[in-house]
Amino acid sequence: MKPRSWLRRNWLWAAGGIFVGVHLSTWLLQRAMRSSVRSEVALKQNAAEERPD
To answer: What is residue 1's predicted lDDT score, i.e. its pLDDT?
Structure first.
């Protein structure tokens, strides 16, 4: 009998790992973008407050 490959034996673990990895990476990307937007908004507000009209 031919030995089965690692992927055939552990396909569920591999699929679960990919699923978790994709969701973790998208969560980190969303968090980084949210932080970037907040800091950009804060910089614009500070510039508007310091500029005398």
So the answer is: 73
